[in-house]
Amino acid sequence: MDVMGDKATLFETGRFVQPSDEKATPDASRGEYRVEYDDDHRDNHRNDRNDRNDGDDHRDEERDETVEAVEEARRRLAAEAGDVEAMSVLGALLLRRGELDDAEPHLRAATAAGDRAAANNLGVLLHQRGYPDDAAGWWRVAAVAGSAAAAHALGRHHRERGDEPAAEYWLRQSAEQGHVLGAYALADLLEHRGDTTAERWMRAAAERGHREASYRLARALDRRDARAADDERGVSDSGGAASPEAEQWYRQAAARGHRRAALHLGTILEKRGDLKEAGRWYLTSAKDGEPRAACALGFLLRDAGDTENAAVWWLRAAQDGDGNAANALGALYAERGQTQTAERWYRTALDAGDDNGAYNLGLLCAEQGRVAQAEQWYRRAAYAGHREAANALAILLLQGGDTAGAEPWFSKAAEAGSVDAAFNLGILFAGRGEDAVALRWYERAAAAGHTEAALQVGMARLRDGDEQGAERHLRCAAGGGSAEAAYRLAAVLDARRPPQPAHELGETVHEKTECEEWYERAASQGHRRAQVRVGMLAAARGDVVEAARWYREAAEAGSRNGAFNLGLLLAREGSEPEAVVWWTRAADDGHGRAALRLALVYARRGELVEGQRWADRAVSLGPAEVTERAARLRDALRQELSA
């Protein structure tokens, strides 16, 4: 029994699959309160260093430090003179530098004078010191006075305490004032509750440049598009292309340094075929520490033929815990014959929680003839839900004679979506004579694109007389590369082909038909009967050279009909000695007509004993017409010999 599907790609499974409930990586806007000025004096006291180019030399840096020192001294003098704004700005400056003891008196003094920015920053200071309730009190003061930053901080405080109504109230106050962090935090809260208005606020934060909001908005759009596509198709398949809008937000987040957005953008571009740009984003993400991007970059490099650099990135990803990359390294070393190193990386993948590691260990052991160990690893992966491991386990059991044990694993793999397992079940039931059940599994595999299954369905349709259904499946199989399907499709088309029209001068006009094209495709793939048929078609149109070429290919591949026809062609061309060689080969393989031809050749040469021997052989081989003619020749030779 020829069971298919015992070979599989070692490291493609699960590539770039993201969990649907993926959590956002915390950034500066989550889990940390940022020091901010209120609108009252933010524009008046910017730090000039932030506006300078990164390429300033050492003298510029020294000049900046001098300017800052002078500015700080000026503010200290103003603060000591009772300037409320100077107190507030100086306190914020010291707070940013971590000088909490120096900052606190200035912030308290400015707060007492009614400065809302100072009240907000005093809350930040107290929070950093571990007094969250006191911090919340000052944030409330600032928020009531109109500070959006304080409303955001107060909303975050209430959410951490579990008071979501209060958190929503203050975050909404902040967001409605245009505060980007408030909009993002409100969106996060609403999304957590399943509120559909979350997207509005996530979009508002993204439009103001919040990179995490841009990323999460893109993810939400991706999931929504996938659900819509699933509903339309009636299947679960989230592997479609991202919408232009989702791609736009991924691109915005990636441009601002979001490593997972860069990973997703690279995946989108790779699917589209923009490999060069995809590689650039994978590289950006990988350099920022994203192991999945490093793994994907490795695959791109491998596909480009650069396995050495691919291994470098896979190693980096595997060391960061990416099981897919560890499997890729294992496969790479297995191809090089370094099985011990390959096994070590497959075990690393398994330790990282990737079930492909166990499956690949099974493949490695099976290739080395370690059947017991292979079964052990296949079972481990199969019990974890790995469908191809279940199929491989069933094949192993079947090869060991355990048909009863194999069938449940084939069924489990097929129900989980393994196309090879569905085809194998068809073979299993066909071997038992349960053709109807076998056909159902063949049809299931054929619907998923399995070439050999489509061939089996096509042949079943032919047996049932359903020529149209047979042609449809044979076309699928032939298009998938099956030489047998191409030959059978050609035969179906050949049977309905009208006779060739004759030229008015008596010469046959030949135009290559579709059935000839399929015969030639099968012949070029080494199909012997197709080669003989192509030779016959060439001979019919008078192309002796082409006919001889195809007959010879078929004969040398073991076709007795090819050898017989080649002999006929050579005999007509006056090369009877060579024709005898090919007829002998055909007759030795059981071709009755070839044996009869040999009997006639030897009879004409006067080698009556040899002629009688081949006549006897032709009688035994048949068919009936050959048997009758060979018997008459044999009797005549006997009479001649006895005379």
Describe what you observe in this structure.
The protein has 643 residues and is mainly alpha-helical. It is built from 34 helices and no strands. The longest helix is centred in the N-terminal third of the chain and has 23 residues, at 58-80. Helix 15 runs antiparallel to helix 16, helix 31 packs across helix 32 (592-605) and helix 32 runs parallel beside helix 34.
List keywords for this structure.
643 residues, mainly alpha, 72% helix, disordered N terminus
Counted by DSSP, the helix tally is: 34
> What would you call the structural class?
mainly alpha
Tell how many strands the DSSP assignment holds.
0
Biggest sheet layout: none
Q: Span from first to last CA?
A: 56 Å
- What is the approximate shape? elongated
The helix content is: over 70%
Overall mean confidence score, pLDDT? 87
Unreliable parts: 1-58, 502-509
Strand content: under 5%
Query: Radius of gyration from the CA trace?
Result: 40 Å
What's the topology here?
Elements: H1 58-80, H2 84-96, H3 100-112, H4 116-128, H5 132-144, H6 148-160, H7 164-176, H8 180-192, H9 198-207, H10 211-233, H11 244-255, H12 259-272, H13 275-287, H14 291-303, H15 307-319, H16 323-335, H17 339-351, H18 356-367, H19 371-383, H20 387-399, H21 403-415, H22 419-431, H23 435-447, H24 451-463, H25 467-479, H26 483-495, H27 514-524, H28 528-540, H29 544-556, H30 560-572, H31 576-588, H32 592-605, H33 608-621, H34 624-642
Helix pairs in contact: 1-2, 2-3, 2-4, 3-4, 4-5, 5-6, 6-7, 6-8, 7-8, 8-9, 9-10, 10-11, 11-12, 12-13, 13-14, 14-15, 15-16, 16-17, 16-18, 17-18, 18-19, 19-20, 20-21, 21-22, 22-23, 23-24, 24-25, 25-26, 26-27, 27-28, 28-29, 29-30, 30-31, 31-32, 32-33, 32-34, 33-34
